[in-house]
């Protein structure tokens, strides 16, 4: 019998926000879209963006072109066949990738945790000289040497068994591969990296994790300081029905409160939250260190980063 997995999709699309129609066929029981009363949106870059989320049961070896509305299209390729890990005898969980708001660096540079460049799993891929990928440390670096404009980066998040350097194993094949598509908008920027907003106060620390019981509500606050300009928005990407209220920006300080209730749902077991901060001159502080995960007592390896990602859930028959 052909193996199937539950894939969780998150996509950031430019405004006007595309409809969710067409993602699931009529009567398709293994497909579910996530309409929300409080959609994730942002004003930067360009005309703004919104987040669309859905899940679908797909073959464990899957290749498809996905249409999101009439103007947004993605080609995705995944490999997530059920594999028993040789190091612990447990069923492997494919890489779990979180999606932050659109990346908008200026002349500075930032680092993001990734894995490898797309090697044939995409259509019309273009390599960029201003992007450096460190395969050993699994990091992507923007050098700052790029003309203003919008660029697309296609990556694959893989999980592998850690093998000691003294091991005689010649080839360490990936257990799974999950696509991550990034949109990078480069803007003219006269300030230095030290001028971007920074997380302060009660903002969750890097790799913070909250364990949430059924029907429990969790609350947290994000605080940022911007020395040169006031913060115009705190852009957020997270699970459906994550409430964001009380955004205030006074002088150099900005704050916003968030809350989430774990109700009955079919969401992934690990639910990441990512923040980005915009000032009125369109500069962005990339606060990837300030992200939290909602977790229901089960840990899935987490690597984060945008434009579309696919999170693999349970292995199905």
TrEMBL record:
The UniProt record lists the keyword Ribosomal protein: yes
Superkingdom, natural source: Eukaryota
GO cellular component, one term: ribosome
Keywords, alphabetical: Ribonucleoprotein, Ribosomal protein
Name the UniProt record assigns to this protein: 50S ribosomal protein L2
Organism: Dissostichus eleginoides (Patagonian toothfish)
Higher taxonomy: Eukaryota, Metazoa, Chordata, Craniata, Vertebrata
């Amino acid at each position: 019998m052909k193996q199937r997995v539950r894939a969780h999709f998150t996509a950031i699309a430019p405004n006007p926000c595309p409809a969710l129609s067409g993602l699931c066929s009529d009567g398709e029981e293994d497909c579910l879209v996530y309409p929300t009363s409080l959609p994730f949106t942002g004003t930067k870059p360009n005309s703004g963006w919104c987040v669309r989320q859905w899940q679908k049961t797909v073959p464990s070896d899957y290749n498809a072109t996905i249409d999101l509305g009439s103007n947004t299209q993605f080609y995705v390729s995944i490999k997530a066949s059920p594999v028993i890990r040789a190091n612990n005898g447990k069923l492997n969980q494919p890489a779990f990738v979180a999606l932050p708001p659109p990346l908008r660096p200026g002349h500075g540079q930032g680092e993001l945790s990734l894995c490898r460049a797309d090697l044939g799993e995409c259509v019309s891929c273009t390599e960029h000289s201003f992007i450096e990928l460190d395969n050993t440390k699994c990091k992507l670096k923007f050098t700052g040497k790029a003309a203003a404009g919008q660029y697309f980066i296609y990556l694959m998040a893989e999980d592998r068994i850690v093998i000691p350097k003294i091991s005689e194993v010649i080839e360490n094949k990936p257990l799974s591969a999950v696509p991550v598509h990034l949109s990078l908008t480069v803007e003219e920027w006269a300030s230095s990296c030290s001028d971007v907003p920074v997380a302060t106060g009660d903002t969750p620390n890097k790799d913070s994790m909250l364990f949430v019981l059924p029907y429990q509500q969790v609350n947290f606050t994000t605080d940022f300081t911007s020395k040169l300009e006031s913060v115009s928005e705190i852009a957020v990407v997270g699970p459906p029905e994550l409430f964001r209220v009380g955004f205030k920006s006074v002088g150099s300080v900005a704050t916003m409160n968030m809350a989430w209730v774990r109700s009955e749902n079919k969401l992934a077991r690990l639910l990441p939250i990512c923040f980005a901060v915009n000032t009125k001159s369109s500069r962005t502080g990339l606060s990837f260190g300030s992200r939290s995960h909602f977790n229901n007592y089960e840990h899935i390896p987490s690597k984060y980063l945008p434009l579309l990602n696919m999170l693999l859930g349970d292995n199905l028959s």
